[in-house]
Design brief:
By secondary structure, this protein is α/β, with parallel strands linked by helices. 47% of the residues lie in helices and 12% in strands. The chain has an 8-stranded parallel β-barrel with strand order 1-2-3-4-5-6-7-8, surrounded by 6 helices. The radius of gyration is 18 Å and the shape is globular.
């Protein structure tokens, strides 16, 4: 991994105690397990990590625990985007002060139908208020959750205004045409597919890789794609991509957070992995049976026991 902000990244799930507070020790253990099982990096406090179900205080505790984990800072990316710009600024400042330069940033997402000018102003405000040259922002584009469209034009504009700060995008739109358009419009921009389904296609367009929810379970498969691509073995990369895509499509049908937490519960023998903040709920008994059947049909297994 020549550039630390590239390759296979997992949007990590966050383990919770039975009282639904964050299990910080288990969280750090999960990050280390991911890095030992195919991940080049881990995105902390993303959608799969239930970040928007946590208070600002809880997120600050997560950042502090990650900073004290012993994991190299460049292998973690911290999600800081909130509806209120002061919260985004406070969380981003805390991440930077803790030594994390790589920031995954949602736009403020409550108000819909806003203009590109409005979205540009949000990022501009954060960058200007922090005035920190260490910061490397990966814009988080997840329209099904935010209801907002992060256009190619907006990303071009942000990168032109702040070429050393707004350095990438995590595109979780599921729209390949959008991902391809950004990769082509901004050479050298770190375009991350939000699904491993488009990992190889993104790499072939000069993108950075993927940051994916199902990477909690599939990172070992994704790494085979990435390694073959780096080696220039197009046939091996294509074959590995078919395997990774099949696993992604199978797993996403069961809900990213519930499915990933169910698999971690089974893999560790720790039922607490099934804990999640409402309104997200664990899989029902029937849901677990269907997930198990789907994994068996595909002969899908996690890389190793956690």
């Amino acid at each position: 991994m020549s550039d630390p902000l590239s390759g296979v990244w997992s949007a990590a799930v966050t383990p919770l105690h039975n009282d639904l507070t964050v299990n910080l020790a288990a969280m750090v253990g999960h990050h280390k397990w991911l890095l030992n099982n195919g991940c080049d990096g881990v995105a902390v406090l993303g959608t799969t990590g239930e970040a928007n179900s946590f208070s600002t205080t809880e997120r600050l505790e997560v950042i502090a625990a990650a900073a004290n984990s012993g994991i190299a800072k460049e292998r973690l990316m911290i999600g800081t985007g909130c509806c209120a710009l002061p919260d985004t600024i406070a969380l981003t400042r805390a991440a930077l002060d803790a030594g994390f330069n790589q920031i995954l940033m949602l736009p403020p997402f409550y108000y819909k139908g806003v203009s590109d000018d409005g979205l540009f102003a949000c990022y501009d405000q954060v960058i200007q208020k922090l005035a920190d040259d260490r910061m490397r922002i990966v814009v988080y584009d997840f329209p099904i959750m935010t209801g907002l469209d992060i256009s190619t034009d907006l990303l071009v504009r942000l990168n032109a205004a702040y070429p050393k700060t707004v350095v990438g995008v995590k595109d979780s739109s599921g729209n390949w045409d959008d991902m391809q358009a950004v990769a082509r419009a901004i050479p050298g921009f770190r375009t991350f597919a939000g699904t491993e389904q488009y990992l190889l296609a993104t790499l072939n367009e000069g993108g950075a890789g993927c940051i994916t929810a199902t990477g909690n379970a599939t990172s070992h498969l994704c790494q085979v794609v990435y390694a073959a691509h780096l080696a220039g073995d197009t046939a091996a990369a294509a074959a590995a991509q078919e395997t990774a895509t099949a696993a992604r499509l199978m797993l996403q049908a069961h809900g990213a957070v519930p499915a990933m937490k169910e698999l971690m519960a089974q893999n560790t023998g720790d039922a607490a992995w099934r804990n999640m903040r409402p309104p997200i709920m664990p899989l029902s008994a029937d849901g677990v049976a269907k997930l198990d059947q789907a994994c068996q049909a595909l002969n899908f297994k996690l890389a190793e026991a956690a």
